[in-house]
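User: Second chain of the day. Same drill as before.
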Amino acid sequence: MVGVGQADAFSAVAYAAKLTGEFDKAGVDVQFKVGGTTTFEQLELNGTTDVSIGSGVSAMAFTAQGRPTQLVYQYTSGRIGGFVYGGPGINSIQDCKNVVTGPANTSQYGFAVAYKRALNLSYNITPADPTVAAPGLSRGTYDCGIGNPSTYGTVVADGKAKVVVDAKTQTYVPPPTVAGLHGLTTTLQQKKDAVERFIKAYDATWKSTFNSGTFDSGAIADILMKDADYAATPRAGLVNALDNTKPFLYPDAGYFYPDNWPATLEFFQNDVGLPSIKADDPKIAYDKMVDMSYYKDALGDPPAKTTP
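Assistant: Same format as last time:
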């Protein structure tokens, strides 16, 4: 059982692997549990899910609190949470007065805090679930939203907001790198074969459907909407989110390199504000939190690092 916060552009490759039969080809039975943005990773702790496709914030927190958890596969760049969307009359982040963002203790919230500090701004920050944040920006309750295309894709597609800070090119905040497949260390060890088969199928789906020369966000949206978890998602918003999420998916072919780990820990300690995460805590050092043996056993040696 794989935990996801929402059925959205982030989890699209995994759902597509199921819907196109790649998991069946790999010989692994995969079911998804949509658990809510702030709660789904907690399901690892009681065994409801085996692994999660998430930001890794919870993985660090669980480990720091004595429940060793590891990341084994990178599915998206952490920088994706740094988009800033402006409503009518907003042309830059400096114009923002009332910002809505992700729940406290998420990377989206961390970006809102980090931008405010780095640029010496004075906007108000309201943490909220994506189901509240996007409608709030659409209605004008907030003039800006900070987060990712899965949250705000429909608002942009409807013409009610536009991107004023592009997460692909922003240089205000060093981007965190932690976003991947993770689980309790003991669970990963017990289910090693299934985890590696999952990685193989995910990689095959990425190469055949998302990273081929025929990438078609509309066709992928149609595939995804055959699953009940996506049925209520507006198609135009999903297409927008897929187009804007794709550049962040599968960085370094899914391999976690240690280069940005110290900056990532600083981000989660100082900006996300998790009291259990201390950048100098040896329990959450790279060699404790990341195990790339699953990747290497599934796919072989990784390609050279390409992302900053």
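DSSP finds 13 helices and ten strands in the chain.

User: Great, on to the next one.
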